[in-house]
Amino acid sequence: MKRVITFGTFDVFHIGHVNILQRAAALGDYLIVGVSSDALNFSKKQRNPIYRQADRERIIASLKCVDEVFIEETLEDKLRYIEQYRADLLVMGDDWLGRFDWVKPKCEVLYLPRTPSISTTEIIEIARER
Ligand code: CTP
């Protein structure tokens, strides 16, 4: 049984998120998703996500392709999460290309191409302009 893990904020859930989660799920038998906490997002971007973490977590958990969800509290703890959830494969979008190669002795790493022309940031900007 191959266990796949991926991480993200998944704020203002969109089709790019669906695509990467379905593709990640198709690469194994069991998909685990680390949803980054509000505090982690605030420290990274100096703003809170639109959807609070409990809601982002529930949205991801409601997807058919997702088997398990947890809140990611720190970016640097990828290896600890990989070990805790016994992941064989880490999947990330290619905006992270090369950034997690350091976990490779413990876990296979694959970067998937992002869905073009959509992001949470862009959706927020478009909504703001209207
Ligand atoms: N992702 C993707 N295609 C997109 C947008 C996101 O494949 N068009 C992937 C990212 O590469 C990541 C995961 O979805 O692996 C979660 O990304 P996240 O940062 O939550 O979404 P973004 O839309 O990129 O958010 P933001 O604009 O705030 O960076």
Summarize the structure.
With 130 residues, this protein is α/β, with parallel strands linked by helices.
Rounded average pLDDT: 97
User: Biggest sheet, in brief?
Assistant: 5 strands, parallel
Order of helices and strands: EHEHHEHEEH
Q: Which strand order does the major sheet show?
A: 3-2-1-4-5
Write a concise keyword list for the protein shown above:
130 residues; alpha/beta; 22% strand; 5 helices; globular; five-stranded parallel sheet; binds cytidine-5'-triphosphate
Give your account of this protein's structure.
By secondary structure, the chain is α/β, with parallel strands linked by helices. It has a single domain, classed as Rossmann fold, CATH 3.40.50.620. Helix content is 35%, strand content 22%. It has five helices and five strands, in the order βαβααβαββα. A five-stranded parallel β-sheet has the order 3-2-1-4-5. It binds cytidine-5'-triphosphate (CTP). The site of cytidine-5'-triphosphate has 16 residues, from α1, β4 and α5.
Layout of helices and strands:
Elements: E1 3-8, H1 15-26, E2 30-36, H2 38-45, H3 53-61, E3 68-72, H4 78-84, E4 89-93, E5 108-112, H5 120-129
Parallel strand pairs: 1-2, 1-4, 2-3, 4-5
Residues 8-10, 16-17, 19-20, 92-93, 95, 114-115, 118-121 line the site of cytidine-5'-triphosphate (CTP).
